[in-house]
Amino acid sequence: MSDDKERTVELHYEGGVLKLPVFTGTEGESTIELKTLLGSTGMTTLDPGFGNTASCSSKITYIDGAAGILRYRGYPIEDLAVHSTFLETAYLVIYGELPEPGRLKEFSDKLRDNADIPAEMGAFIDAMPRNGHPMALMAGAVNTLAAYYEDSADPEDEDQVELATIRLMAKLPTIAARIYRNSIGETPIDPDDSLDYVDNFIRMTFGDKAPSGELGDLFNKAVGMLLVLHADHELNCSTATVRVVGSAKADIFASVASGINALSGPSHGGANQAVLEMLEEIRDSGISIEDFLEKVKAREMRLMGFGHRVYKNFDPRSKEIKVLASQILDQHDSPDELFALALKLEAAALQDSYFTERKLYPNVDFYTGVIYRTMGFPTNMFTVLFALGRLPGWIAHYREQLHDPAFRIARPRQHYVGSNERRYPGQG
Ligand code: CMC
Question: 321: CA distance to ligand 1 center in Å?
Answer without folding.
Answer: 20
